[in-house]
Amino acid sequence: LPILSVIGPLRGENREGDVDGGEAGKKLGVEAVIVAPSRELGMQIVREFEKILGVDNKKVVQQLVGGANRTRQEEALKKNKPAIVVGTPGRIAELSASGKLRTHGCQYLVLDEVDELLSFNFREDMHRLLEHVGRRSGGDLKSNAKKAERQLIMVSATVPFSVVRAAKSWGSDPLLVQAKKIVPLETLSPEPVNLSPNSSANSSKPSKAVVESLPPALKHYYCVVRLQHKVDTLRRCIHALDAKFVIVFMNHTKQLKDVVFKLEARGVKAAELHGDLGKLGRSTTLQKFKNGEVRVLVTNELSARGLDVAEC
After folding, report:
1. Looking at residue 264, which CATH number applies to its domain?
2. Residue ranges of the Helicase ATP-binding domain (predicted)?
3. Triad 270, 272, 274: Cα angle to 5°
4. Are residue 142 and residue 275 in the same domain, yes or no?
């Protein structure tokens, strides 16, 4: 959240003009757009902003996540004139296309979990956002001059080849910022992942940069079991480790309900989290997990991407 040092009330500038719709508000408008691949992650970012900004300044940030009431979002944009908007690609692109969200003068575009935002599902919406956010009137967006007007921040736990390629294509002189160093991205030459069955065993080893970025106390365990024994092995591991907060990732959404049923049948409080649940159901499930009412959260990779549960 370093953006708050240059945007909004924490930078020491008076934003009263924004609220009243005065000239200052018209000049500033939306200064930062933050894009997240899921509603849960988007709302988590909004709540973190609100904690830092405090009750009096919470209107500086506005959520634009899919699944929420679009009319109310439009009304909030018009009334509050936020400096920062946080949302999912589809909803932000919709409001941009309708003219309700004007981002041509935006200074910062943040793509959280960018490796997921690069997926085919978001391609059309991301194309619009990259074309319109921070675009000044006239000129070619692909030129270095246009790229320099808008700072693009791409956040990811890993730096796969697709992210490096996107950064070089969308940005100007991109930098790779890691926990211990900052280097020009041009010096990084990642190799595409080799999925060939004939690839050597060494190709599957994590890079030195990945290993260094992992928490030093993190431990990994794995069990090789038959498919029909997976859920019971999971239950036994949970009890053996005395784990109080457990997130179980699965590849297929249709498997979640079955796993939850089997865990519950053996006395383990569990719940599923996936995109097919309604907004209320997803938020209720997540809150129960954070409160400790649910011990095991069974989810797919996208739904839980970027979620922060301190005890987990």
Report:
1. 3.40.50.300
2. 1-177
3. 165
4. no
Pairing status of strand 296-300 against strand 270-273:
parallel
pLDDT per residue over 193-202, tens digit each? Answer: 333 344 444 4
Contact in structure between 271 and 248 (CB atoms under 8 Å):
no
Q: Is residue 145 part of a domain?
A: yes
**Closest CA relative to residue 246, chosen from 302, 306, 287, 290:** 290
Evaluate whether residue 222 is within a structural domain: no
For residues 303 and 173, which has the higher predicted lDDT (pLDDT)? 173
- DSSP 8-state assignment for residue 297: E
In a domain, 206, yes or no: no
Q: Is the pLDDT of residue 115 over 50?
A: yes
What percent of the chain is modeled with pLDDT above 90? 39
Same domain? 63 vs 172: yes
Provide the residue range defining the domain that includes 98. 2-187
For residue 206, give the DSSP letter: P
